[in-house]
């Protein structure tokens, strides 16, 4: 069941079209990655989903309600903004206890969430004394304090060091598995998204270029790359180039990398073996190379440009 | 699970931010000091002035400096409250809570205006009772009308400042506009009298009284003392100007609410 439904969302800033007929669905229990280049419309989309911005056209629903008109849905939504924004002078624990009272949860939850993000030692510090990374952790603690069903995070890992990023992703997976929290994550750091997301939405110039599970998108947009190690790489490359489904062949001293289109999926191993036998080349190894989310993203965005 | 209290918590956080120690204490001291030190309560007996006129004049002198402090306090609270929220973006955090936009603005305004007005009026009325214990009760309508008329202009300036702060999304800019308005109206009061006499028309005075009804009230009580005044508005006319002043401020506040609740994209 979709928690978020956006249909034909449009938002202009004067002459600049930020979001153009964008459609999006986030299903309950999923972790969806929202990716796109700078200025693609990710933050504007997130703001419309949160009810901070009113769409010029189109419809957005969260838990079946319009987020602009119905603030009650926020009892079930947690938010982490790209730049965490809290009253600088307040103490960490005082502020979180206030947030507990706002949501009507027990104040002991404040120390629980601080422990969850490993920030319990900063309990008595004023918010302004937190480092950028600590502030990000604080923002995450703040977003899950009321045990929301859905968390939206804009550039969640941008201020964190690699270790902190890794533990944050573990935390996301833990919340997802233990409490069945649904996430919509926007991030520029694509390898991280591929680690936690089960589906992605790639947007560019305010439009959705591609959406679906990672496997579906790899299948649809990326050519498979086969790595063949051989004792005669140059001869083998010349022979393989003639196969109708081969798009590109790269050669090095150890072997060849063959990019093939979808049509070659079933026959490629057999065909390469046949060709190798014909030219008396030895095949020392053959395997399919995996495509990263970064490559997928490049292919999708480039295909739109072309 | 406890009962959520988002409005009370936002209000308490606003009060905490607006009146951080020792702001409230210093303001109270300044209000008390200026109320008692600069008030002219002596010498009215020998002038033969009516009691109404005396009460009005005492209130005018009692309010001089405190009214200026009140305006500055209201402007500061707009800048550091909702203005700061918009400027620094903390409003987005407030909007992550299950609270309507109008409740957020109401909490901010209650803290910015309610507390300041309560402090101002509390000290003023107490000072009036202490300085002229026999005059307040018998002249309560004059007291109420004088305060209502004099607070109208600060409210008008505050409402303009609020609207500017919301549209410009910068509290500090809104405050600069507010301070300019305050001094502009001070200069305008002399200018409209001059213009009216030069044009031989009370229209500039009437227009000015719409936003500053204490100006009309000055002439009303002045006309009770002397027949030779340029403009002698009736009591109902004075009341009408007070009502109009509050009406204009209320309209501007409603406009601010509408803009904040229905138009402001963050």
What features would you describe in this structure?
The complex is a heterodimer of chains A (306) and B (266). Chain A is built from ten helices and 13 strands. Chain A is an alpha/beta fold. Chain A has two domains: 2-218, Rossmann fold; 223-290, Lrp/AsnC effector binding domain/regulation of amino acid metabolism (RAM) domain (Alpha-Beta Plaits). In chain A, the strands form three sheets. Chain A has a six-stranded mixed sheet with strand order 5-6-7-3-8-9, sandwiched between helices. In chain A, strands 11-12-10-13 form a four-stranded antiparallel sheet, covered by helices on one side. The longest helix of chain A is centred in the middle third of the chain and has 18 residues, at 162-179. The relative contact order of chain A is 0.13. Chain B has 266 residues and is mostly helical. Chain B has one domain (6-263). Chain B contains ten helices and no strands. Chain B has helices at 6-18, 23-37, 51-88, 90-94, 101-131, 140-168, 171-199, 203-211, 213-225, 235-263. In chain B, helix 2 (23-37) runs antiparallel to helix 3, helix 3 (51-88) packs parallel to helix 6 (140-168) and helix 9 (213-225) runs antiparallel to helix 10 (235-263). The model of chain B has no long low-confidence stretch (mean pLDDT 88). Chains A and B meet through strand 5 and helix 2 of A and helix 1 and helix 4 of B.
